[in-house]
Amino acid sequence: MKSIWWILFLVFMVPAQDEGSVEIYRVEESDRIELFGRNKNIYPVTVEIDVEAENLSPNKKLPVIEVIPPNSNRSLVSLAYSNIEEGWNLRTKYRYYMGDIDAKHQDSFAYRLPYAKGEKFRVAQGFGGYFSHQGDLRHSIDFDMPKGSSVYAARGGVVVKTEERYDQGGPTDDMMELANYITVLHDDGSFANYSHLMQNGVKVEVGQQIRTGQVIGFSGNTGYSTGPHLHFVVKKAKRGGGFTSIPVKFVTRNGIQLLEEGQSYIGY
C-alpha cells in the first residue's frame, strides 16, 4: 500500500515553555487510520484539527474540535480507507490552546478576598476600568496593595503556571510580558490569575493543590503597572484561543457581592 504522510502543526496561545506539550499521532488499523492527541500538561487543552485526505473518509465533520484532559490521550478523528487496495494521502493541520472551551464556571461560588482577614484594601480598578480592564479583561479587579503584601488564594485549585523572575514594572508596552504571576485551575475548569507579584514572590509550586485562604505569594509592581497592586481575574478558555474574563462575587462583611471600583473592603 502506498502511503504518504504529512503533518503541519501550528502552536499558538501557549507560552514557549509549553511547545511540544501537545502531540498528534496516528495509529494505522486494518480498515482505518486513527488520529490521537496527547496532552502532557497538568491542565486541559482544546485542540482544533483539520485534514485533507485522498481515499480516506473521516467519521466526523471537519475541522474537529476536542478537549483533551490533563496528562491524557484522546481519539480525535478516525479515517476509514475508501478502497483498501489503493494508496492514501493525508495532510494534517492542528493547533491547540490552554483550557477547556466547554467549561462552565460555577457562578454560585463566592470568592474569598485575596488578602488577610482584617486587612482593608481599595479596589483601584474594577470591572470595565478605563485603564486596562476592557475586552476580554473586562471582569478584572486591581487591589491597591503595597508591595510585599501577602496574597491569599481566593479559591482552591491546582497551581498550573507561575512566574517570579522579573523585577521591573511600568505603564509602557515593553513591560507587558514582565509581570510575575500565579495561575490556578479550579475544579470547574476556570482559571484564576494573580498578577504583578514581586520578584521571587511566588510561594507555591506548579502542580501543587492549594486551598482557599492559603498564602500563595506576595504582591508587587511588575509588568504593565502604574504602581504596586494585585491584579485578580477569573477566566475561561474561548474558542480560537485566549481567554474571556468572568464576573465573580466575593464574601465581604456586608455579604456576598460584586466589588465596586473606588470602594475599600475588609478581608473576611
Helix-and-strand structural type? mainly beta
Instruction: Give the termini distance in whole angstroms.
Output: 69 Å
User: Helical element count?
Assistant: 0
Topology as H/E string?
EEEEEEEEEEEEEEEEEEEEEEEE
How many E strands?
Answer: 24
Q: Evaluate the radius of gyration.
A: 22 Å
Question: Hey, roughly how much beta strand do the residues contain?
Answer: over 45%
Shape: elongated
Largest sheet: 11 strands, antiparallel
Mean pLDDT equals 89
pLDDT < 50 runs, ≥5 residues: 1-17
Secondary structure: helix percent: under 10%
Describe the structure.
There is one protein chain. The protein is 0% helix and 50% strand. It has strands spanning 3-9, 22-28, 32-39, 45-54, 56-58, 64-68, 72-81, 88-98, 110-111, 120-125, 140-144, 150-152, 157-163, 169-170, 180-185, 191-202, 209-210, 215-219, 223-224, 230-237, 243-245, 249-252, 255-257, 264-266. Strands 10, 11, 12, 13, 15, 16, 17, 18, 20, 21 and 24 form an eleven-stranded antiparallel beta sheet that branches. Strands 1-8-4-6 form a four-stranded mixed beta sheet, with no helix packed on it. Residues 1-17 have low confidence and may be disordered.
